[in-house]
Amino acid sequence: MSDVKSPAQGKLVRKVVIPALAGGAVGFGTAWGVGELIDGGFASGLTLSAEIALVAGALYLVMALGVLIGALRPGFGARYLNVEDADELRETRAMLVNSCIAMALWGGGLAALALAAPGPLAASTALAAGLAGFALGAVFAWRSWQASDELMTSVTREANSLTALLAFALLGGWGALAHAGYLPAPAPLDLLTTFFALGLVATFVVVGRRGMMRLD
């Protein structure tokens, strides 16, 4: 049996396996870093819901930074982002940059709310920062939408619809089970974190279903 990998196997490793492992490492590193900050006293006293929300917000920030670097440096970004080549990044730069800014603002808004008292931020400060992040993020998300081509516009619509369906199923089921006494009721922050997480899940599902996970 030959030990030489076929071209298809090489593409699979380069475009799927390595990015997946790198993404897992980044996610683990982000969660570990947030945990170290909490253990170090920066955000002591947070509830479990707040800790999870803080990790989710940090992940949004890290992902936004990673894609933003790739969009601004297409030659480098084409090596690890799910694109055909550097030219594709140049063509979609406006959409990607605005989308990254939106993600960073949303992640920062969620993190700010997670740090509300008994965390290090006063409740009023955390609320103002959170609402500002969500509102400004929506502005840049709209700008990204306007800069999108027909395909990406359709992907966004499908991802938003799937997010709503998943949220209805998960949060609705959770609420029903909590009402019946089988589960603890979700904390308010759990609702926000769930929407953030499901938005990412829905996007990956739609991208995969449309065959946009490139292996070439």
From TrEMBL:
Name of the molecule in the record: Uncharacterized protein
Organism per entry: Erythrobacter litoralis
Transmembrane regions listed in the UniProt entry: 12-32, 52-73, 94-115, 121-142, 162-183, 189-207
UniProt key word Transmembrane: yes
Keywords tagged on the record: Membrane, Transmembrane, Transmembrane helix
